[in-house]
Write a structure and sequence with these properties.
The chain has 99 residues and is an alpha+beta fold. It has one domain: AF2212/PG0164-like (Elongation Factor Tu (Ef-tu), domain 3, Beta Barrel), CATH 2.40.30. It has two helices and six strands; from the N terminus they run ββαβββαβ. It has a six-stranded antiparallel beta barrel. It is globular. It starts with 5 loop residues before the first strand and ends with a strand.
Length: 99
């Protein structure tokens, strides 16, 4: 990822279909709208867009997905990332997305 544009926000991690579902962070609607307006041409199938993410000084290459029902992007958080960053559900966390 080039990381030419950075969006930083605070959000809470949530789980889809607990107890075994995936974990996500929702990007704010205003940031999602701006990303979609400026970078939609970078989306791959199903609204997937490659990005880098940073949480607690841990940077990794990943992707965000566009949720067309909520009109926001969501960032999946794998178990290894949750463990390394000590990320917990429903706790405000600062996140940066680099495009």
């Amino acid at each position: 990822m080039n990381g030419k544009v950075t969006y930083t926000f605070t959000a809470k991690m949530w789980q889809h279909n607990p107890p075994l579902g995936w974990y996500f962070v929702s990007l704010p609607k205003n940031i999602s709208s701006e990303i979609r307006n400026l970078f939609k041409n970078q989306e791959e199938g199903w609204g997937r867009m490659k990005v880098s993410a940073i949480i607690n000084d841990l940077k990794w290459d990943t992707a965000i997905w566009f949720d067309s029902k909520k009109e926001i992007y969501i960032l999946p958080i794998k178990a290894a990332i949750r463990k390394k960053t000590n990320l917990k559900i429903k706790i405000d966390t600062e996140i940066s997305i680099l495009l």
